[in-house]
């Protein structure tokens, strides 16, 4: 017997509210800190207009960038697998007909995934499959039990943004951490002078009464504590970006046919950063979409055996972060980062002259 729709709605609302508690907490802390910094510090204690105006101007610029990045991280929907990764009903029924026959299930998945850009596998070299979503998992994707879907290039589910940090919003998440750290450091640096004066017996501020002292002291210590936590988290994710890894991949390296390789998607520091932030350096500080690719297939390190031996029969129809979709890709066995040039004795060299120029430009 199904529960009434009103009860389901109430349960859903309660669950959504509980999930939003960390976000509400951050927004409350932010609202109080705004009140403490703007009113109690800049408008009440900083008597010099030449000093208070720059304080307020810089603070509001950082605040706008922080909120922009934060809300983009929260409200960007995690990307799911494309429709061609989903098993048709008849194939799924055939797949589940005899659940004990694992070899038969593996053969069905391999037949279905023959034309899909799959380069990572399970520990038993089988196709990665999600029985909840009924899809073949694209490379680097994982099922999120909170979002109830398979998320492309999933990093982790973050309760502080009530969303999955993934291919869709990873840049926004890093900017959220960066601007959060910058704001905390800025607030701590501009309030420390007054905190010291409150404890200095040679100043009049120590004997003055007022709630503003409590607000400014607490503001300094909270900003300092958040600075430490944000710095460690931001440093860790900058490291992951430089290695082109996700948090999940740092604990469980991707499994290729030849074995697990934590550097399987490592293209070099500069290209790893471009995978997340794009090629337009001037747009990196802003939470706008500049990422490369579509989150389904990724270029891999040339040391991975698949980069030298695996050939996809339908690679022409697959877009990656380096796009060859309008060119004959029979020269390549994969989306491969390599510095090798085509031999001058190759009989196909004149035919593929334009393609060679593009290949040389990117690689």
UniProtKB/TrEMBL annotation:
<dbReference type="GO" id="GO:0019706">
    <property type="term" value="F:protein-cysteine S-palmitoyltransferase activity"/>
</dbReference>
<protein>
    <recommendedName>
        <fullName>Palmitoyltransferase</fullName>
        <ecNumber>2.3.1.225</ecNumber>
    </recommendedName>
</protein>
<keyword id="KW-0808">Transferase</keyword>
<dbReference type="InterPro" id="IPR001594">
    <property type="entry name" value="Palmitoyltrfase_DHHC"/>
</dbReference>
<feature type="transmembrane region" description="Helical">
    <location>
        <begin position="20"/>
        <end position="39"/>
    </location>
</feature>
<dbReference type="GO" id="GO:0016020">
    <property type="term" value="C:membrane"/>
</dbReference>
<dbReference type="Pfam" id="PF01529">
    <property type="entry name" value="DHHC"/>
</dbReference>
<feature type="transmembrane region" description="Helical">
    <location>
        <begin position="172"/>
        <end position="196"/>
    </location>
</feature>
<keyword id="KW-0012">Acyltransferase</keyword>
<keyword id="KW-1133">Transmembrane helix</keyword>
<keyword id="KW-0812">Transmembrane</keyword>
<keyword id="KW-0472">Membrane</keyword>
<feature type="transmembrane region" description="Helical">
    <location>
        <begin position="216"/>
        <end position="239"/>
    </location>
</feature>
<comment type="similarity">
    <text>Belongs to the DHHC palmitoyltransferase family.</text>
</comment>
<feature type="transmembrane region" description="Helical">
    <location>
        <begin position="51"/>
        <end position="71"/>
    </location>
</feature>
<dbReference type="InterPro" id="IPR039859">
    <property type="entry name" value="PFA4/ZDH16/20/ERF2-like"/>
</dbReference>
<feature type="domain" description="Palmitoyltransferase DHHC">
    <location>
        <begin position="125"/>
        <end position="251"/>
    </location>
</feature>
């Amino acid at each position: 017997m199904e529960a009434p729709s009103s009860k389901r709605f109430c349960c859903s609302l309660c669950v959504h509210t509980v999930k939003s508690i960390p976000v509400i907490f951050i927004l409350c802390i932010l609202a109080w800190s705004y009140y403490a910094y703007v009113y109690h510090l800049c408008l009440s204690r900083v008597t010099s207009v030449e000093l208070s105006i720059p304080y307020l101007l810089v603070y509001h610029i950082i605040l706008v960038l922080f909120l922009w990045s934060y809300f983009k991280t929260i409200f960007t929907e995690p990307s799911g697998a494309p429709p061609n990764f989903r098993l048709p009903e008849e194939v799924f029924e055939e797949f589940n007909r005899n659940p004990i026959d694992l070899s038969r299930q593996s053969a069905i998945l391999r037949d279905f995934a023959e034309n899909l850009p799959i380069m990572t596998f399970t520990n038993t070299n089988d196709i990665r499959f999600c029985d909840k979503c009924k899809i073949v998992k694209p490379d680097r994707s994982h099922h999120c039990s909170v979002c109830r879907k398979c998320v492309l290039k999933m990093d982790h589910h973050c309760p502080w943004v009530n969303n999955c940090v993934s291919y869709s919003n990873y840049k926004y998440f890093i900017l959220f951490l960066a601007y959060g750290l910058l704001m905390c450091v800025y607030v701590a640096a501009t309030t420390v002078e007054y905190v010291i004066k409150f404890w200095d017996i040679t100043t009049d501020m120590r004997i003055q009464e007022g709630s503003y002292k409590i607000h400014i002291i607490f503001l300094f210590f909270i900003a300092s504590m958040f600075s430490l936590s944000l710095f460690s988290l931001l440093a860790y994710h900058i490291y992951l970006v430089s290695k082109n890894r996700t948090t999940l991949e740092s604990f469980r390296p991707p499994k290729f046919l030849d074995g697990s390789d934590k550097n399987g998607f490592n293209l070099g520091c500069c290209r790893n950063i471009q995978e997340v932030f794009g090629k337009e350096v001037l747009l990196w500080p802003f939470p706008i979409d500049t990422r490369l690719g579509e989150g389904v297939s990724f270029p891999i390190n040339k040391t991975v055996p698949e980069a030298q031996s695996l050939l996809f029969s339908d690679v022409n129809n697959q877009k990656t972060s380096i796009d060859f979709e309008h060119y004959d890709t029979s020269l390549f066995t994969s989306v491969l980062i390599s510095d090798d040039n085509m031999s001058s004795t190759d009989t196909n060299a004149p035919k593929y002259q334009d393609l060679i120029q593009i290949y040389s430009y990117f690689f």
